[in-house]
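hiii so um. not sure if this is the right channel but i have a protein structure encoded as tokens and i wanna go backwards to a sequence. like what aa goes where. can anyone help
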């Protein structure tokens, strides 16, 4: 199957420099980006569908690196079904489990936590609600897990782990277990800030995070209560390659502080934008877009930097074959625009004045999943999708 996207206006490849694509057209073949070039060279009859972006902006699909899935398209946290597919309408084309901690009756024993991670990993390999890819099966670190357990889990395909929800007596007790998990090849996120669940113990502050040295400091701007500015300064300055994940469900003032410190330190590649949702803050369908708009309008980032923090930087930290608009990459793409009625001229401008962008078309694995998001306003431009037979429909107009 192939689709073409033509008449692209502005664009963002997802890379750290915020570069535009080399042209105004893309062809996707099967699940990959096959070609980038000029719209003049595209023959619509050669493709199952052609998206006319009408000058709208193309960006990579968003990757939410802090997503609280359970089993299936159901969240016990809010007793809601269909939430994963709904998040696609907020621009999230791919998500990474922050552990299946909200599974009802979750186990705490070693056999149980291993089984839960393997089960979630296997289930979401075969389940793609709405076309969303969910990297599930994040091992909840518990006392008693050994290097042998981590090796067995890696052999079984589990590659994610989460510190902060286990039954350790002290946050510092996680340090050797996190190091053993990382040594076995697992990508480890740790909870940051005050405790969220009744069965966890104590705040996880800068001292513990630096001792653990996880791959990602999860919701480093609070989940929900944040670290103080001095702790933020330590994690940025002393954390080395620890990713600094800021989330919509956290403390926005702290998110601004962390983003500014990363910018000043020249380590913006460590900054990730995520949602931490669904959580106690609710179901934040377009939480990533909302935080991008806030950090671009009243925060220290440009819109292009914010987009990178929700796409290419996430892909780099987690080693994903997505998040960048490059030939050969997975074709997870969004056609976005300034919302109808916005004073901005395009999607980049909309983010910079604090408007949540309109999503005209969402593509995952090279397949058009929807035209016109049901959760964002109509786009300014008359984006159209046309099939090979010439049938077309307009996404939005001003």
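sure thing!! here u go:
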């Amino acid at each position: 199957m192939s689709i073409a996207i033509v008449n692209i206006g502005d664009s963002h490849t997802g890379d750290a420099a915020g570069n535009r694509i080399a042209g105004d057209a893309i062809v996707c073949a099967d699940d990959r980006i096959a070609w980038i070039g000029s719209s003049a060279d595209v023959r619509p009859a050669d493709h199952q569908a052609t998206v006319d972006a009408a000058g709208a902006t193309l960006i990579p699909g968003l990757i939410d690196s802090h997503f609280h899935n359970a089993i299936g398209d159901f969240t016990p946290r809010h007793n809601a079904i269909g939430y994963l597919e709904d998040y696609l309408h907020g621009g999230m084309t791919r998500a990474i489990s922050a552990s299946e901690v909200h599974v009802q009756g979750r186990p705490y024993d070693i056999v149980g936590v291993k089984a839960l991670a393997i089960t979630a990993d296997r289930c979401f390999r075969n389940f793609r609600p709405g076309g969303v890819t969910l990297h599930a099966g994040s091992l909840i670190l518990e006392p008693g897990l050994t290097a042998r357990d981590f090796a067995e889990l890696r052999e079984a395909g589990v590659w994610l782990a989460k510190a902060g929800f286990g039954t350790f007596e002290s946050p510092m007790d996680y340090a050797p277990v996190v190091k053993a998990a990382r040594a076995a090849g697992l990508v480890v996120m740790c909870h940051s800030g005050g405790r969220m669940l009744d069965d966890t113990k104590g705040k996880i502050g800068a001292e513990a995070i630096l001792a653990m040295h996880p791959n990602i400091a999860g919701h480093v701007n609070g989940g929900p209560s944040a670290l103080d500015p001095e702790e933020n300064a330590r994690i940025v300055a002393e954390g080395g390659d620890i990713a600094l994940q800021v989330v919509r469900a956290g403390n926005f003032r702290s998110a601004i502080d962390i983003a500014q410190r990363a910018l000043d330190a020249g380590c913006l590649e460590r900054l990730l934008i995520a949602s931490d949702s669904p959580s106690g803050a609710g179901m934040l369908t377009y939480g990533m877009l909302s935080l991008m708009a806030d950090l671009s309008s009243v925060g220290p980032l440009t819109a292009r930097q914010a987009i990178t923090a929700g796409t290419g930087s996430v892909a780099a930290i987690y080693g994903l074959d997505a998040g960048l608009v490059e030939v050969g990459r997975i074709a997870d793409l969004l056609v976005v625009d300034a919302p109808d009625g916005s004073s901005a001229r395009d999607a980049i401008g909309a983010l910079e004045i604090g408007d949540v962008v309109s999503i005209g078309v969402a593509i995952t694995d090279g397949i058009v999943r929807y035209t016109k998001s049901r959760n964002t306003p109509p786009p300014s431009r008359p984006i159209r999708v046309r099939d090979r037979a010439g049938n077309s429909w307009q996404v939005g107009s001003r």
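oh and Residues 110-125 form the longest helix (16 residues).
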